[in-house]
Amino acid sequence: MDETVKLIDNQGRRINYLRLSVTDLCNMRCCYCMPESGVAKIGHRDVLSYEQMLTLARHAVAMGIEKVRITGGEPLVRKGIVGFLGELARIPGLHQLVLTTNGLLLEQMATDLRRAGVQRLNISLDSLQPEVFSRITRRGDLKQVLSGIAAAEKAGFPIKINMVVMRGVNDSELADFAALSLEKSYAVRFIEYMPVIKDDNWQSLVLSGEEILNSLARHYSFTQVVSGGLSGPAREFKIAGACGTIGVITPLTGHFCQDCNRVRISASGKVRSCLFSDEEFDLKPVLATGDLASIQAVLRNLVMSKPASHGMTQTSSSHAPFAMSQIGG
Questions:
Q1: In terms of CB atoms within 10 Å, which end of the chain has fewer, N or C?
Q2: CATH number assigned to the domain comprising residue 227
Q3: Is the pLDDT of residue 5 over 90?
């Protein structure tokens, strides 16, 4: 790649990570992602085609994007997803192709995803207790997700499990989740609850990263480990004698904005330089022109407008409420 086309923002951060949502549809209704009533679906004509997404990805990689994460909604519900991922995996210069999923469809699809060229999976799993799982997701079968994780492991995927920690909801399971890393090389990530939809009294759900670590320290001895450059914002640790790792992601109490290297494109072609920025740009008109210079100019301008930090704390947030499925998890 030509060094002159790297994406560098006005804070000097190198942007090399694209989160690309392929659908706003989901087969769950997680309480921290969307209101219980759900959200209005995007019209079929308003969703980017796979061809448009591939065009964006190729231009982005040519400008310095090295890692693409496919998100949703639930990406595996979109028809033709495996073929699209195969095309994406063949883009020259793309170093990592990863996918975030709730795991419901993994049992049937894990082998095909691996063959298509997906290198890693992030699997959202917020409880190991069927009743709690059902309450959080408002639908879905925990056994089905666990079978999907087993199928993904059998297919050869490194397994990363993301748990959104909510005080009084699933925080009693922290030690049980950490135990998943003991005998298998799972990477288990504990994520602070984020006020995406801004429910009333959302602050009561937040368990800080330090509280999470203190809780785990009552059960295990662990030490911090160094993570790789494209591995994300987690602080990683290893329990003594464990095969895998645990980690905490602290968007509220331990901002990692100074190291943020990502931009997001929604399934409808809206691009954001920060998840919690209300500013977004519609890429569809530019894509319709097919002009390479215009597309690259938009991406570069977006990166240059990336804020230094989001405005969230453990007790306050200034962004407008949104459903995570509409932006891309």
A1: N
A2: 3.20.20.70
A3: no
